[in-house]
Amino acid sequence: MQTKDQLTKLENLNKQIRISDVISVLMAQSTNLIDIVNKIDESKLSQIKLSKFIQKVNDSNAIISIFLNRDEKERLPEWEEIAAVSMSVQNMWLTCYANNIGSYWSTPSFLKEYGELIDLSVNQTSLGFFFMGVYDHKESPKLRDDITTKVEWI
After folding, report:
1. Which of 21, 115, 133, 138 has the smallest number of Cβ neighbours within 10 A?
2. What is the full DSSP assignment across 32-100?
3. What is the model's pTM?
4. How far apart, in whole angstroms, are the C-alpha atoms of residue 39 and residue 5?
């Protein structure tokens, strides 16, 4: 059960996120997302993976569907547009971390089928789901090697 303070952090996070033009986000209601995913042909998806995905949906406070809206004139290479979406998601991830909100980006194997079920246009591609939720955060010590052990300066 979330406290009022934790829910306020999620609401504030939603206000802070600014997404670039190349990403289109959809706050999915968990029941709608589960209904859509349940329509996927079972031969294309293992029941175990489906059950795990549904559990993740139920455990999350918010889910953002991540889409690439490809430039129809293809003025940029596709990899640059995907990279831009990725950077936007990373900014959401960093904002979540700064606010002690658990989050991760998942790209399940059924993304193509999901895109077909929600009638994406030709220039749109589903790139996954960004799961967010509150959790009992405990800071752990960071055991990192010195940068000189990984980088050779020339």
Report:
1. 138
2. HHHHHHHTS-GGGS-HHHHHHHHHHHHH-SEEEEEEEE--TT--S-HHHHHHHHHHHHHHHHHHHHHTT
3. 0.68
4. 36
Indicate the domain borders of the chain.
4-137
Q: What is the CA radius of gyration of the chain?
A: 18
Gap between the Cα atoms of 68 and 57, Å rounded = 21
Nearest to 66 by CA among 29, 24, 120, 98: 24
Residue 146 neighbours by CB under 8 Å, 6+ apart? none
CATH architecture of 4-137: 3-Layer(aba) Sandwich (3.40)
pLDDT digits (tens, 9 = 90+) for 90-121: 999 999 988 888 999 988 878 888 877 787 88
φ/ψ of residue 22, rounded to 5: -85, -5
Is the Cα torsion angle 2, 9, 135, 35 positive or negative in sign?
Answer: positive
